[in-house]
Inverse folding.
């Protein structure tokens, strides 16, 4: 039986009776899109949000129709927009909700081809605001409006470049490091007060619209695939994992950065990656008679 068929037939009602807000679905390649589809399959009601420009450019209205829900336009860097979003979400649900996904990331420096040693600092501020500080703003607005039920769950998507230098990821690495710090700092406050848990998921490199702007993404995906004993985790795999964090099965998991990367984060060098690396060294970087890769 195909994987998609198994996924449909093996619904566990993990989120039956739960309601959630999902940021960042743009098109069918988006991880947020997959999370939305799977959340509804598992019994949840959802509200979708993205910027007005992204709504026009993408196909989120198609997702909303499929999930029988609404799309509320909001700029996640605007507190005013977020306040309106939370109000509209609570109005739609008739009260509080249970989970929230932050799947937002964009770097003007990456888009404009500015390297890390030649950043435009106005662009950097926008990168941090869009990709990380928006997470803080969304949580802060939700908390002030007491919008999330006790024992609710908030998840943001991250990447291992927050801990390790990966060529081409640029100032997005700084944004992801800040994102993970916000999850820890707010996780303590919201957990202590309302038992709301906050985690980040460090996902494998994934060919989404946002990820496609990263320099050398294809090579990075190939390297990670060769390095990871289980291979890269797909967007569908990530959605399944995120759903467990929204469910009651993970009520005591909070303030964590959780790796969902096929084992990549624990590897030093795999046999497959070594062979690829060795081949590249032999033919490109090593002098003719240099041991051990010389001709």
């Amino acid at each position: 039986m195909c994987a998609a068929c198994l996924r449909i037939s093996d619904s566990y009602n993990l989120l039956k009776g739960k309601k959630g807000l999902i940021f960042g679905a743009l098109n069918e390649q988006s991880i947020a899109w997959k999370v939305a589809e799977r959340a509804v399959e598992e019994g949840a009601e959802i509200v979708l949000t993205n910027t007005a420009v992204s709504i026009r450019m993408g196909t989120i209205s198609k997702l909303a129709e499929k999930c029988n829900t609404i799309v509320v336009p909001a700029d996640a860097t605007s507190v005013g927009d977020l306040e309106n979003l939370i109000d509209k979400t609570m109005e739609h649900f008739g009260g509080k909700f249970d989970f929230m996904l932050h799947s937002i990331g964009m770097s003007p420096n990456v888009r404009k081809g500015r390297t890390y040693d030649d950043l435009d600092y106005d662009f950097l501020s926008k990168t941090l605001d869009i990709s990380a500080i928006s997470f803080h703003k969304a949580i802060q607005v939700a908390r002030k409006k007491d919008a999330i039920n006790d024992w609710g769950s908030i998840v943001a998507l991250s990447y291992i470049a927050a801990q390790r230098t990966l060529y081409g990821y640029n100032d997005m690495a700084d944004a992801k490091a800040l994102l993970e710090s916000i999850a820890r700092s707010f996780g303590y406050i919201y957990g202590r007060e309302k038992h709301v848990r906050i985690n980040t998921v460090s996902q494998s490199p994934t060919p989404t619209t946002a990820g496609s702007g990263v320099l050398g993404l294809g090579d990075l995906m190939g390297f990670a695939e060769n390095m990871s004993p289980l291979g890269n985790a797909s967007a569908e795999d990530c959605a399944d994992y995120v759903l467990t964090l929204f469910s009651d099965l993970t009520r005591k998991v909070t303030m964590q950065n959780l790796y969902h990367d096929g084992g990549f984060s624990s590897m030093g060098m795999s046999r497959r990656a070594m062979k690829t690396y060795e081949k590249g060294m032999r033919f490109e970087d090593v002098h003719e008679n240099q041991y051990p890769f010389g001709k």
In short: Strands lie at 19-23, 45-50, 71-73, 97-102, 148-158, 197-203, 257-260. The chain is about 45% helix and 15% strand.
